[in-house]
Amino acid sequence: MVTKQFSGSSEDADLRRADSLAREIFSDVANKWALLIIESLGERTLRFSELRNEVEGVSHKMLAQNLRMLERNGLVERTVHPVVPPRVEYTLTEPGQALRVTIDGLCDWTHRYLGHIETSRHRFDA
Amino acid sequence: MVTKQFSGSSEDADLRRADSLAREIFSDVANKWALLIIESLGERTLRFSELRNEVEGVSHKMLAQNLRMLERNGLVERTVHPVVPPRVEYTLTEPGQALRVTIDGLCDWTHRYLGHIETSRHRFDA
DNA sequence: CTGGATCCTGCCCGATACTG
DNA sequence: CAGTATCGGGCAGGATCCAG
């Protein structure tokens, strides 16, 4: 075994670690529910139950799971009001807002090419 | 049973159909492999086996599956050269290129906030 | 109302083998 | 080389129940 690192230097290791982290984040973010949640939040502050209504078709479990994930990554901020019944509010952080901008781009793209895609599908299915 | 439509007019039906189509497209596109494939393609033209090497970690099956899906939606163009062994090349269409631009934004975002996210995770995990 | 924990089902996806 | 079909294990995700 070698004491020194392989191809050389800890910079390579750092780069590899950053890459794997980027991949991880990419996997977290590139999922339907996360994107829809962020898009629904926009610049508003919403409660859990409100989000449940906003994000069409999301289950209780998926919403909770993704919100925790987004909170962990620092994309949403979770504030608990010590009242009964409990009131918990979610809002996008600055990184979250930045991400939302790119998601807006994705939505724009979807609507712009809706027609192209529909006809392309029809042709393909024949 | 009613002969007339519910809330009225076929425009509502059109809107609902467009929405469901948009959701469908969103689900197709908001998936890790599709995004990575599009990003890898960029403005190049690549063969199946080349894509297999480019997109780190993708399986034969997932690559074929996603390529068919992208082709169906008209985001990639598939050209078969009638030689042996067969040579099949993939390239982004104009809608595909447009989508790639927004994905680039996503990648930029990822790298810009890599640090934020890492520290946020660390704090959260405590 | 928020959000865990648990069970259970269906499907995703990897491995493999087979055609052109 | 490119692509499809099949099988099987594992995990995603819905339903439900409970706790604070």
From TrEMBL, chains A, B:
Keywords tagged on the record: DNA-binding, Transcription, Transcription regulation
Organism superkingdom: Bacteria
InterPro entries xref list: HTH_HxlR, WH-like_DNA-bd_sf, WH_DNA-bd_sf
Domain HTH hxlR-type: 18-118
Pfam families in the cross-refs: HxlR (PF01638)
Protein name stated in the entry: Helix-turn-helix transcriptional regulator
